[in-house]
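hey so u asked for the seq, here:
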Amino acid sequence: MQHSASLQSEHSVRHQSTLLRAVLRIMLVFSLLIGALNVFVFNAYLIASFNFISFAAAALLLLYFNDEAKLNRTSWLACLAVIFNVVMFINIAEGQNYSVLWVMIVPPIVFFLLGRRMGALLSALLFAYTVYFIAQQIDRPQPETLGLGAVLNVLEVCVALWFIYRFYEGSRETAYRELKLQSITDKLTSLYNRSHLDTLLSDLQVRMQSGALKRACIVIIDIDHFKEINDQFGHIQGDKILQNAARQLREFTRERALIGRWGGEEFLLILPNFTLTEARDYCEQLRKGIAATKHFQNLTLTMSFGVADYNPNKSIEQALIQADRALYCAKENGRNRVELATA
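ran it, structure tokens below
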């Protein structure tokens, strides 16, 4: 539960960081483009000055935000900069040309960057101010109901919202994929973890029972003398050796097999559509490749393999028990060998 909460917190921070950078980039581009329009098309130099201030603020915040420790502060500064510019623009434009529509970009930004509580508070305050501002304009004459400025305001707000929601959805999907990947991955070795291996074995059983799969083999692999390696070199170096061994297993088994950390220094290899003989030959190549690799201080690492076949006539539990017994036999017979399960 703690590991899951830690993963969610880490991805929440990463998600918020991605959104913050996206908001600042949108702010950067829109401030520059709208500022140019206000200068060269509408001759609205006062409004343009605030656009360019917004551009400078976004640029400075992008440069400032180089560390996730600054995430909360930068998020607040970005939100306040957006709110300030929206309020100033509406006041200078006196609410004309649908300028009040710009308040609509604030809620998604403050909710995404500051969370539900502060997002709700700031949005409510801004909406209350907007209602008050509109009420003050009711008795004033409106010289123009629709013109180029109004059309551009509507268009710009729609485009800004499109970009904001697009970036939000993209970052959310990325964060979900990363969280899902980490939830099935062993943190030390980057192989599948025990929980996901159980899922893969259940899927294997379903495929076997449905007839979609005719045969398979299950292999339990153990690093020989790993306790002595830990005692000799220490647990930190032992972890590095374990990581190197896991990387070799992953690279060798990438195309035809599924590999994960079963527990401690043990790994589980799932070989769909392998006969027992094919699995033995496959594991023998893997064993030789591992044994030929030099590790820390020219250490040679060896592994023992217990191989069991899996077919419709036996359960996953029976296959695992047989593979475990075969592994025990491999260790009893001198280690650094591949042993096949007997019926």
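The chain has two domains: 2-183, 194-340. Confidence is low (pLDDT under 50) at residues 1-5.
lmk if thats what u needed
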